[in-house]
Amino acid sequence: MEIVKPQQTVVTPEHLLFEAPRKRAYITGSEAASEAIKRANVDIAIAYPITPQSETMQRVGDLFGQGYVRDYYRAEDEVGAFSAISGASRTGVRCMTASSGPGLMRGLEVIASWPGHRVPVVFLIMCRVINAPLSIQPDNLELDYMLSTGNIVFHAENQQDFFDYTLAGFVISEKCEVTLPVAVAVDGFFVTHARGWVEMPSSDLKLPPRDCYREAVPMIDNENPPIRIARDAPIQKSNFISYQMHASWQQEIHAAQERSRRWIYKYLGGLIEVVNPGAETVIVASGSAVSQSREAVRQAEEMGHRIGLIKVKSLRPFPVEELREACKSAKRIIVPEFNCAGWLNRELRATLYNHSDAEIAPGPRVFGGITMPTELILQWLFDKTGNCR
Amino acid sequence: MSLKTINCSPVFMPYMPKEYLDLINKGPFGKEMKLSQVGSVKELLEEHPMCEGCAMAYFIRMTLIAIPTPEHSVIVGTAGCGRLSLSQAAIPFVYGNYCDTNGVATGIKRGLALRFPEQHKDVIVMAGDGGLADIGFSQVMHSWFRKEKFATIMLDNEVYGNTGGQESGMTRKGEVVKMAPVGKQFEKIDMLSLARASGVAYIARLTITNPARIVNTIRKAILVAREIGPTYVQAYTSCNIEYTIPPEKVMDDARRVEQERYSFVEEMSDAAREYLEKVHNIK
Known about the structure:
The structure holds 2 protein chains of 2 kinds. By secondary structure, chain A is an alpha/beta fold. Chain A folds into 2 domains: 9-213, 3-Layer(aba) Sandwich (Rossmann fold); 272-381, Rossmann fold. Chain A is 37% helix and 18% strand. Chain A is built from 15 helices and 16 strands. In chain A, α12 links the parallel β12 (281-285) and β13. In chain A, α2 packs parallel to α9, α9 (159-173) packs across α11 and α12 crosses α15 (374-381). Chain A is globular and about 70 Å long. Chain B is α/β, with parallel strands linked by helices. In chain B, β1 (73-77), α4 (82-86) and β2 form a beta-alpha-beta unit. The longest helix of chain B has 17 residues, at 211-227. Chains A and B meet through α4 of A and β1, β2, α5 and α7 of B.
């Protein structure tokens, strides 16, 4: 089948993300993600179906059919998809893939190797239950495993975030001093299958292509001297030099993550968003728990209480200084989460240790697909007499 | 890589190591190496840490001579003995994770095809029997089903050599090796038949007994993969350590194995044959 390439104008990331006029559309998170891919000048997308991710990647397949994505195929499984993405990215083309829950866990060996291979990639995560008994329901426990992989990890609250963070993800991932994969997570179904208002620039516009010669490592394309390029350092030797080499390699990945902060400020408007700064009772949340918390904050306001809300947009790098500053006046903090482990709670405790006297409540948490009713958040905020706990 | 990029800036030339200068002046870049030139040219691989008498090291040396355009070739490997020498060859080498060779090669091939539509960039997977027939099996098969255009070369030493001699799917039935304490319970995996059933365009099986045959076979496999479809070469490269073959007897062992059970096999599709004859004048 002959694919007619659509006419799109390349514009700067700044123009696409901030300046171009936007139109509102009432669409699902899956649609929002594929609308972002449509404008992202993607060279290769590789798909493997898993609920609730499939809808996005089959839409990306349609984009390939329409000529917006240059190459696309359905891989044999997640390990195959993520491996091929890592090979493609090494050659200098812009790549993306996506997965959910068990698929992410299956491919975790590969995901955890992307940063060390220094491959810019955008990886969309539509979170779902990972543990037995098998379930397709929303639950973001898988992000706990992502935190130590060296990937940059954003957690989108809603359809609009999913659109914006995905586009920004490509730009940040390919910055020379970053050169790392960017994972953009959303909570499955709550965002992927529900509609929300999304403001988008025209699809006649797209990001500039990947500029692979301005990245941290040479491409595997046989176009660079020197003759021999083994980007994957030959460090599987048992000697002191190889240990040193591996240690410095890992440190550099984390340093690169640190260097991404300024770009997250530029393209995501910061690592956190603060509602009602200076409040004594504060909710810290990420993902769709933020939306539920916004409603709880509004209802509390009707009851005459001013509750603070901190939305954590970037899980890696983690907003350490920002949270310490934003929680300065906090006396009590609750951390609503859609997982049983409470990874955000743990991260927050480690961050505020010795920097805050606030009591950090161990919840509320729901998991296995259960929704987070605003009432639950309010119960954790107020006692039966209606006073802040 | 044009030869322009292999030649570094003239001002740096006096400071470049002799090895590098030799590769530029006497290396295989920009010309097709002949087997008869071995000894008078700078080869892509000269030093490596493989064991004394290693058949695999010898086979890899011949393979590197066979690569038609090393200046436009990428080798993809995985954990195992082979990568110890491959990672020291003067050719870009990708060493990814476990099982990922044929996925990574797929991505590399497609990425390079997008960026350089006018220039053949050959991708060659070279890995062991464990890497390709066990842990990497799914990716090997699916790359064949998808008709990905790259060569897959199995260094079949019939054992996990690098981890210390454990049973692999390519170990022969009955062999007592580590993790097969009472002898392997099932037959050696018939990868040739699987390649055939998958529609692989060029299939070959050989041992190390005939260097000219190695060079010809590998060259054909790489060329057919360029235009026609996936290719597969399976080479018996004994592990003289785990199978206790004295270094000086390695070639004898190869001759015996070739005679008994590892005879030369070469099959290709009509399209592959026609392509080799018409475009490359290879019969």
